[in-house]
Design brief:
Residues 376-399 are annotated as: Disordered. The chain has 20 helices and no strands. The chain is mainly alpha-helical. Helix 10 packs parallel to helix 17.
Length: 399
């Protein structure tokens, strides 16, 4: 996240980076997503082979090596580029690029202090280590926890998985095509079209917007899981449509219009964070059974990366050719998002594992499956009770 933000800021706001426009500006900004797209088919296999910690360690090492051979959050990136604005040579954009290595260094130092993924351990015949981690982090040390035992129960059907997959792929598109890349990568262009032309003013506003996004994103991420998922997604999409529509209507070349444009740009981030920030991965974790999550989240990335590449690439072309009318395209797409969420997205909050597993099945089938699970659990409980009674009888006879 830091690298594309820093790159977009350098291209958009730093005069010494040159002044690419249209196609060239789009391809420079979108090339990061293109590299990520090419790596996606290999990610599940690397994760399964190296484990979660090994994958993060390797990825961080590659980032560091890439920075040396090729050349923080968003607030850090914006702050750094604002500070290097007075360096009137190539180091004005090289310094933010090199500083991208800092998070990867921290990941390499601390990643092996974290526990390994239980799923990966089980897939490599290390069940005892997986159980120790589950007991420690999911059952507060209780080795007899029914919750830990239930985590290996994953019931699903092909029909349900197809709908899960459709939602996952559309989430990948929604997180990139909702107008966020337009603001993140082309903030300076938008301010310029609103009549704000000074580079320093643009960077101050960009830094302020990044700080505001950090604050509201943090607050929303803390409280978002307390509300119903589908309601939050509907609120998010409706708010984004209202924001973009009001933004387009307010476009005029005068001082008051400039203030209105800045206001709606700042309004956008909390609207987006309600649904397409922390909630996205929470929702996918609830949608997918445990053993499927790694691969299915890779599917989400497989769609979000090309979507990010496409929209980052076409944004400067659209702005150059039709100006503010480009916002109408986003208004139309956001209307489609509202429709899709309303008719397709299920509610996943406050549901049991069995209910989530049969989320898209007909009620009769789901009820039969739930009864079967309850019967198996009850049977196991009776066996435990009978075993204890038998042991007690043996002890009495021996006594």
């Amino acid at each position: 996240m830091l690298w594309p933000v820093a790159l977009g800021i350098c291209i958009d706001l730093l005069p010494d980076y040159g002044n690419p426009q249209g196609f060239l500006k789009g391809i420079i900004s979108a090339v990061y997503s293109l590299d990520a797209i090419l790596s996606l088919p290999f990610i599940p296999y690397v994760n399964d082979k190296l484990g979660r910690r090994g994958s993060i360690f390797g990825g961080s090492l590659v980032i560091i090596l890439g920075q040396y051979s090729g050349s923080f959050g968003q607030v850090t990136a914006v702050g750094i580029t604002f500070g290097t604005n007075n360096i009137h040579n190539n180091w004005g954009w090289r310094i933010p690029s090199f500083l991208q290595m800092a998070p990867s260094v921290l990941q390499i130092i601390f990643i092996y202090t974290l526990p390994e993924s239980p799923r990966w351990l089980i897939s490599h015949d290390r069940e005892e280590e997986a159980e120790v981690i589950l007991v420690k982090y999911h059952a507060e040390g209780n080795t007899e926890s029914e919750f830990v035992k239930a985590e290996v129960l994953h019931l699903f059907s092909t029909a349900a998985m197809r709908r899960h997959l459709l939602i996952t792929t559309m989430l990948g598109l929604f997180t990139q095509w909702s107008g966020n890349t337009l603001i993140s990568y082309y903030f300076g262009d938008l301010l310029g079209m609103a009549g704000i032309t000074k580079s320093v003013t643009k960077q101050k506003l960009n830094l302020a917007n990044s700080c505001w996004s950090l604050v509201n994103g943090f607050i929303i991420s803390i409280v978002v899981t307390r509300f119903r998922r589908r309601t939050l997604y509907l609120t998010c999409t409706c708010a984004l449509l209202c924001c973009y529509t009001a933004w387009y209507i307010s476009i005029h070349h005068n001082q008051f219009a400039s203030i209105a444009n800045v206001f709606f740009i700042f309004t956008y981030s909390p609207c987006y964070n309600i649904g397409y920030n922390a909630l996205t991965y929470t929702y996918m974790v609830e949608l997918w059974p445990f053993m499927e999550r790694s691969r299915r989240i890779s599917v989400f990335r497989l769609f979000s990366r090309p979507a990010g590449f496409f929209t980052t690439f076409v944004n400067p072309i659209g702005l150059k050719n039709i100006g503010w009318k480009w916002l109408i395209a986003y208004c139309c797409w956001l209307f489609f998002e509202i429709t899709f969420v309303y008719f397709i997205f299920p509610e996943t909050s406050n549901r049991t594992l069995e209910e989530l597993a049969f989320l898209f099945e007909d009620k009769e089938f789901a009820d039969r499956a739930t009864k079967a699970v309850e019967k198996a659990v009850h049977s196991g409980h009776n066996e435990n009770v009978d075993g204890k009674r038998y042991s007690s009888q043996i002890s009495e006879r021996q006594g």
